[in-house]
Specification:
The complex is a heterodimer. The two termini of chain A are about 15 Å apart. By secondary structure, chain A is α/β, with parallel strands linked by helices. Chain A contains nine helices and twelve strands. Chain B is α/β, with parallel strands linked by helices. Chain B contains 13 helices and twelve strands. In chain B, helix 4 runs parallel beside helix 7. Chain B is globular, with a radius of gyration of 21 Å. Chains A and B meet through helix 6, helix 7 and helix 9 of A and helix 8, helix 9, helix 10 and helix 11 of B.
Chain lengths: ~350, ~325
């Protein structure tokens, strides 16, 4: 058994979108969608990224695949720094990293047949014969549970869950190692969500895939992820193995987020629910100090002045909060996260 | 809530059909339910189960054609909303029955400030003067927890966040002290922490104002937290109905049972695999002769394919539309 190795290493990733204004349309500011996040994804695991809308989780996922040109930071996938590759080099690397998008309606071309959609990556990246490609398409359709007879139909003829299967088949076409799933089940009904999540898990086992699973559904992330990163306003506030994060959250935001999830059990109506006041501040003008200081119930003076660093408080459990200042950093070096723990 | 009290709203045998080029779609099939004073009735179901269409049929909010309310009675007090004239129905909407829609961005008018939009029903239905209406609007915004209310009347919808917009929507719906508030997925478009705020607000408003609420959602967690009674819809029909604790503790319909099992939990042990409901929801293309859940049901037998089950009481105000005896299966 090999020691677990990091397939993806992200260091201090920043993604700022410029805001232009004024008479000369000069840059007057920036939306700091992702503002310095670092994490590793171990080969074969699922890293869940959770947070509210606007926290930068999707932007982070896209920047990791370099669908955006990151403002700063390095992204190493399977030993190659993706952030600095030339366009041609990057294209060669594309087959190993793929994405499943949120809205299966919008991410499938309505004028292409299912075979065309699933086969497009093959057209782009292989010089296979038509027959070989078709074989592969059928193979993929079997793998995601689509009937082969439907290969020549168009996306509109499929239901939401089936369309998501088409999207997954396309992502699998080139035998990727790493897949970013950006809210793959958010647009689906509850009974269909479970089908798609089970499929993703089966495929992970079968092909040894590594997932970055972005979602706002905390219960579903608890089910699918091995480790979870909680984002708030462009930064990771807590990152921990799934069990530790849900049972013993260290950051007040994680605590509030978990407490806000309605539980399908009337007998468990929790009276000690933490209801956060106010809204998420604008990412173009984040608060000084800790990003969460405007809504935190345990806010202290230092929180409004100094940004708390993400530190390893318990083995594998990182949190960025001044409340934990009296607890020493464990692990090797502080600052960057080393995920030798599992 | 007292069981004996006369219902505020009583719906009997409601049937709504859409005529399309591909034929008729039976969106609501013989739906009957009642809403008692002061209670919060949760309606759950997946997309296409007919929950929104049912509520919109009640108030004549569906475009007709293609929609057609073919049958039924909707009694609000002693008036049948399906037979009264358009003018009277218009007076009832917004005054006696308030409506909160899913998406607060598309349901507020972007070119009018929110003050105008809150004052509109007050002036139309209650005949208030401009300054009276303005005072009432400020009161309402304060009631739904919008700080600095008087100044914010002049703001436009885009100047509010999603949660704040939904509060404005609630304020509009509450403007004329409705007896019934129908909320159609009011928190679905919101983040969980904002959803928690709105749920707290609704609990608070219920205590203060005491109106009856119909709350449509697909989130069983939300229902568990706020509803007194729950109605589960599938394929345009009510498949199960009962007090919320009873239904969650002893779900009788195979669909409800499966729905509760497919949801991953936030606490307790983590399942290795999620339970799934195989197959797809029904297409509703024809008038149902069989049980709509038949082809996905693990307990289906001959009778399910031949006869659409009627709702039958199973005690404690709980009823279910299913031929299968869930009690026998538990043993």
């Amino acid at each position: 058994m090999n020691a677990p190795r990091n397939l993806v290493e992200v260091r201090d990733l920043k993604m700022h979108f410029p805001i232009y204004g004024g008479f000369l349309r000069r840059q007057v500011g920036a939306v700091k969608a992702v503002d310095g996040v670092s994490f590793n994804i171990i080969e074969g695991e699922t890293l869940g990224i959770v947070g509210e809308s606007g926290c930068g989780k999707s932007t982070c996922g896209r920047a990791v695949l370099r669908l955006y040109e990151a403002t700063a930071g390095s992204i190493t996938i399977d030993g190659t720094d993706i952030a600095t590759l030339s366009a041609e080099e990057l294209r060669k690397r594309r087959p190993m990293m793929q994405m499943v998008f949120q809205d299966p309606q919008a991410s499938l071309n309505p004028r292409m047949t299912v075979a065309g959609i699933i086969g497009e990556p093959l057209d782009e990246h292989t010089d296979w014969s038509k027959k070989k490609k078709l074989e592969r398409i059928y193979e993929l359709m079997d793998a995601v549970g689509l009937n082969r007879d439907f290969a020549n139909r168009y996306p509109h003829a499929f239901s939401g869950g089936q369309r998501q299967r088409i999207g997954i088949a396309r992502a699998l076409a080139l035998n990727p190692k790493f897949i970013v799933c950006d809210e793959p089940i958010a647009a689906l009904d509850v009974s269909i969500q479970a089908q798609v999540v089970n499929l993703l898990e089966e495929l992970q086992e079968q092909f040894g895939l590594t997932y970055m699973f972005i979602s706002h559904d905390l219960s579903m992330v608890r089910h699918i992820a091995d480790r979870v990163a909680v984002m708030y306003l462009g930064v990771i506030v807590e990152l921990a193995p799934v069990q530790a994060l849900y049972d013993k959250p260290l950051h007040p935001y994680t605590e509030a987020l978990l407490s806000a999830v309605p539980e399908p059990d009337p007998a468990m109506a929790r009276k000690d629910r933490i209801v956060l006041q106010g809204d998420v501040p604008s990412p173009s003008n984040p608060p000084v100090g800790c990003n969460f200081c405007t809504r935190c119930s345990k806010v202290m003076d230092i929180c409004k002045v100094e940004k708390p660093p993400l530190r390893e408080i318990e083995p594998g459990h990182f949190s960025a909060c001044h409340l934990l200042n009296d607890r020493p950093t464990v692990g090797q070096t502080s600052g960057t996260q080393t995920t030798s723990t599992q | 809530m007292p069981d004996g009290a006369a219902p505020v709203l009583e719906v009997t045998d409601l049937k709504t059909v859409f005529r399309t080029r591909g034929g008729e779609v039976h969106a609501v099939n013989s739906v009957s339910f009642e809403l008692r004073p002061g209670e919060l009735l949760g309606v759950v179901g997946e997309s296409g189960s007919g929950k929104s269409v049912t509520m919109m049929s009640l108030l004549g909010l569906l475009p007709m054609p293609p929609a057609e309310v073919r049958n039924g009675k909707v009694m609000l007090g002693d008036r049948d909303l399906l037979t009264i004239d358009a003018e009277s129905l218009r007076n009832i909407r917004g005054s006696e029955v308030g409506f909160v829609f899913q998406d607060p961005m598309t349901s507020l008018n972007p070119v009018f400030n929110v003050g105008f939009q809150i004052m509109e029903p007050l002036r139309a239905h209650m005949g208030l003067s401009k300054s009276q209406a303005r005072d009432r609007a400020v009161e309402l915004l304060e009631l739904v927890g919008i700080p600095d209310a008087r100044r914010r009347l002049k703001d436009y919808p885009h100047q509010f966040s999603g949660g704040m917009r939904q509060r404005v929507m609630i304020a509009i719906a509450l403007a004329c002290d409705p007896k019934v508030l129908i909320a159609d997925e009011p928190t679905t478009a919101l983040d969980v922490t904002i959803q928690a705020q709105i749920l707290e607000l609704v609990k608070e408003l219920r205590q203060k104002l005491g109106m009856a609420i119909i709350w449509i959602t697909h989130d069983l967690g939300v229902i568990a937290g706020i509803a007194d009674r729950v109605m589960v819809m599938y394929g345009g029909q009510i498949v199960e109905q009962g007090p919320v604790r009873e239904v969650f503790a002893n779900p009788a319909h195979p669909y409800t049972r499966a729905l509760l099992q497919t949801m991953p939990k936030l606490h307790g042990t983590r399942d290795t695999k999620l339970r799934v409901i195989e197959g797809q929801p029904p297409m509703l293309g024809r008038h149902p002769v069989s049980c709509p859940f038949e082809d996905r049901c693990p307990h289906a037998f001959d009778r399910c394919g031949k006869e659409n089950p009627q709702r039958r009481p199973i005690g404690d105000g709980h009823d279910v539309a299913c031929h299968w005896d869930h009690k026998g299966a538990l043993a």
